[in-house]
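Supplementary Data S3. Sequence and structure tokens for construct A.
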Amino acid sequence: MSSNVSAVTYREGDCRPIAAMTVPKSGGVQVYPIAVGDICIYGNVVVYNVTAQTSKTYYNCVLPANAVFSAGTGADYTITSITPAYSGASAVTSGQIITTAAQLYGCFAGIALHKTGLQSGEFVFKLTQSIDPGWTLVATAGRFEFPILASAITSAAPVYPGELIAGYVNGGVVYNQQVARGANDTSATPTAIGVACPGYNQFHATGAGGCQHNVSTLASLVVEIRTQLMHTQLTSGQ
């Protein structure tokens, strides 16, 4: 689901962190583990309790942006559906939960500040598989440095302060620790999850000094994030 090693670096600014509920564990294991630096989405998760034979909706749960629907592996419950929070979303019961930059824009919760659960094949000394208190910390603001597609930013095609930045999507799969250029804020399907920060991403002007980069391309981009969850009242556990 997520990478074991974070490729995203916090740079500066008030993160305005919130404690957001994670998807309930199944069989004591977090079905949707989250790594520090993950781009997170949020939505409503319907869980069927096998023992009680009842269903319950958990509202505004967070999970990694590249999550694939899973019914869970424990005998205690199964996940019936997940409905991401973007406008007009349908309940997802198979495949990728979100598949486009516009969908990511609509349910972008922020950047994970706290590790929740363990990735497949990951083990931690003296900790069980259930390192998940039922919530995680998510940054709803702040400046973060993300990897960006190779050659996306060059001296011939520099990024400018305030340029809109989207999540990176390739083949219907959202990359949960990478961003892309070409976002918009004005069309019927906006995609921007942040803006390029001044003072970090500029190239060295010819014959001038004081800028940050005297190279031909950049491999990362510092972005001030803009989230939807920041404007949404959490109603977890309804």
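Construct B, processed identically:
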Amino acid sequence: MRRRLAALPWIALTIACETAAVPVPDAGSDAAPDVFDAGPIGEACGNICEAEKKLCPADVAPDCVEACAVAPMQAGDCEEVLGAYITCLGEHSEEMISCLAADYPPACKQAHDAYLGCGHRGGCGPVECKDVGEGACSCDAICSGVTYTEACTQVDGGFDCTCSANGQLDKSCPGLPNGCAFFVGCCADELP
């Protein structure tokens, strides 16, 4: 359930380039790749990938900067929103504490939430789970503009869980068979 920033295909972030010029391979040619100026996004991606190199070197893809720089162009209607999120992550890369997608810098909360909610009208964006320690879990998803959080603690015979909407406790669910089974767990009946 733990997603790493480096593992995300649209925000795969790496250390290979430190400049804003990013090579883009031409799929129909064996010639050397063309180089385009990735501008501020390329610089942000370089910062993010450098931070990830320090935090989780084994998980950083060799094409991290390149994949990160082209990600907004592949995000369809969410291009601007993803670009703003990547820019924020780059500006605050020194505040990154892990490579888990849920551990984004606090200054990027608004950009993060906008990106997760983008393109998910009426439904839920991706579920992100935080590492909260042994025998516990906490997962969030933004559904129709509301942030739902399912938090569970392991107890004898299962998990005691809660579901919150925008930080307000909605429901307690003692004795569930699985912890943080978001769409079939404690929050299942609360989701739109």
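The first strand starts at residue 21 and ends at 24. Residues 40 and 186 are 42 Å apart (CA to CA).
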